[in-house]
Amino acid sequence: MPDRRLYHEDPAAMRVETRIVEAGELDGRPWVRLEATPFYPEGGGQPADRGTIEGVAVVDVRSRGAEVLHFLERPLPAGVAAVAVLDADRRFDHSQQHTAQHALTALLLERHGRRTTAFHLGETYAAIEIAGNVPSEQTLRGWEIELNAEVRRDPPVRTRWVEPEAMAELPVRSRGLPDGHTGPVRLVEIEGLDLNTCGGTHVVHLGQLQLVHLLDATPARGGVRVRFLAGNRVFRRLHEMLALEAGLKARLGTGPEEFSQVLEKWQTERQRLARRVRELEAERAETLGAELAAEPGPHLGRFLPGAGPELLRAVAGAVLERRPEAVVALVGEDGDPPQGCLLVQAGPHGPEDVSEIGVRLRDRLGAKGGGRGRNFQGRGGRWPTGEPLFEPEP
Ligand SMILES: [Zn+2]
Question: At the top level of CATH, which class does the domain 4-86 belong to?
Answer without folding.
Answer: mainly beta
